[in-house]
Amino acid sequence: GTPDFRWIPNVAKLIFDGCTSLRRVDESIGHLRSLVCLNLRECSSLEQIPDTISRFSCLETLDLHGYSNVSTLPENLGNLTSLKNLILNATNLTGLPESVTLMVNLKLLSLCRCRSLKQLPKLIGRLKSLTEFQISQGEIPSIPESIGLLTNLRKLKIEGCSSLVALPASIRSLENLEDLSIEGCKGIRDIPDFFGGILKLKRLSMGGTDLLKALPSSFFHLRSLERWSFSSIGQQFEWAGGADFSHLSSLTHVDFSPHFVSYSYACRGLHSGLDTFPLLESLDLSRCRDVGSIPKLPLVGIKNG
Fold it and tell me: From the DSSP assignment, how many helices (H) and strands (E) are in the chain?
């Protein structure tokens, strides 16, 4: 265990990174009212987080990466209203306490490789300061509609969540979003017509969306889009009415390469619109056997191996 923290009341940072034998944190940790950073990364034997951490009025970073022994967090975690970074990667959490939505200063919420995660707080939209939200490999069937209230969000990554079948239309309200990834979300069939509201989007990753049928028309008006990955989509996908890329004038990097030849469907019907990318530097068509002829392009690099 840890020592009695009452003897070091002015500590600002506590770092137990990689202390794999640590089983408990002394309750006296709640006396560290000046604590700004608590790092318990890879403390894989830790049995619980003491409720007294809710007293940390100055805490800005809580890193519980690899905290794999328990499935829940203290209900009063939301009392950490100064928290800016909450890192819960590679944990066995099944959900988050609703009180998390009271963290009004939170900027980063990271839930990568949380394979047991089954739901998100319904009122996650209360986290108005959030600029980066990432979740991967969870079992969540849906994203709360309230996510549309996160108007300061710049980066949204929802990756490898195979149980997810749809995205909320409220994403159209994320007017400051610059980076969106739904890579590996194999259950998504349709994407709501929300691209018209996220016109600042610069990076979009959609690879591995096996059941996706089509893209909404508003996608083709993303004038700020610079990087687009659309590799390894499924057989059902079709470019409805062809592909008009003429408004995607900022694109510099495009990746249509499937991981396997059998996933080359995104390449069909592309050749008619490929010559409309004036800034294109890189185009990856590896294993795209159905693309047909390729027009003359002002490329720095083209790959079609």
Answer: 0, 13
pLDDT at 259 over 90: no
Residue 263 clears pLDDT 50, i.e. is over it: no
DSSP-derived 3-state class of residue 43: coil
Count Cα neighbours of 161 within 13 Å in the Cβ-side half-sphere: 28
Instruction: Examine the pLDDT at 207 and tell me if it is beyond 90.
Output: no
Phi, psi of 13 (to 5 degrees): -135, 135
Are the CB atoms for 187 and 162 separated by under 8 Å?
yes
Give the residue from 76, 141, 139, 77 showing the smallest Cα distance to 109. 77
Given the structure tokens 């294993």, which residue do they identify?
287
State the Cα–Cα distance between residues 179 and 157, nearest whole angstrom: 8
Torsion, CA 191, CA 302, CA 157, CA 198, rounded to 10: -50
Whole-number pLDDT of residue 261: 39
Pair 176, 152: CB distance under 8 Å: yes
User: What is the Cα–Cα distance from 91 to 11, expressed in whole angstroms?
Assistant: 27
The pLDDT score that the predictor gives to residue 265 is 45
User: Between the CA of residue 74 and those of 34, 95, 102, 147, 265, what are the distances in Å?
Assistant: 20, 11, 14, 23, 47
Q: End-to-end CA distance of the chain: give it in Å, rounded.
A: 56
Average pLDDT in the chain: 86
- Cβ-proximal residues to 29 (8 Å cutoff; 6+ apart), any chain: 2, 5, 14, 35, 50, 52, 53
The sign of the CA dihedral 34, 40, 126, 172 is positive
